[in-house]
Amino acid sequence: MILQSSVVPGDTKPLPLRFLVKAVFGSDFINWSSVRLFGKAMSAMFIPKEVFESLSKVEQDKLISDIYLSALPISARTKDILFDMYISNLSIDETFPF
């Protein structure tokens, strides 16, 4: 098993407003559009810039598709995404000292 989106204890960053996250992750079209428009910028959250830029355009597009578009339909995961972001990921700092 490979964890696509895991979390470890550490500094908690401010979270975006819940209604915005729910709008983006609650709509398959909005999520798909965001990935298509901002996929390259979004990749910086997970892939070092130097690594991403060393890939060809075709490889970059495939990577973005494999990472982000594989989650579609995102609306089937909205409830779980919100739970992870606003409850379980935050509680890891409280119960698992690093």
Question: Which blocks of ≥5 consecutive residues have pLDDT under 50?
Answer: none
Q: Beta fraction of the residues?
A: under 5%
Helices and strands, in order, run as: HHHHH
**SS elements, strand count:** 0
Helical segment tally? Answer: 5
Main beta-sheet annotation: none
The termini sit apart by 23 Å
Helix content: 55-70%
- Averaging pLDDT over every residue, what do you get? 84
Overview of the structural elements:
By secondary structure, the chain is an all-alpha fold. It has one domain. The chain has helices at 18-25, 28-43, 49-53, 57-67, 78-95. Helix 2 (28-43) crosses helix 4 (57-67).
Offer a quick outline of the entry.
By secondary structure, the protein is mostly helical. It has helices at about 20-25, 30-45, 50-55, 55-65, 80-95. The protein contains 5 helices and no strands.
List the helices and strands and how they pair.
Layout: H1 18-25, H2 28-43, H3 49-53, H4 57-67, H5 78-95
Helix pairs in contact: 1-5, 2-4
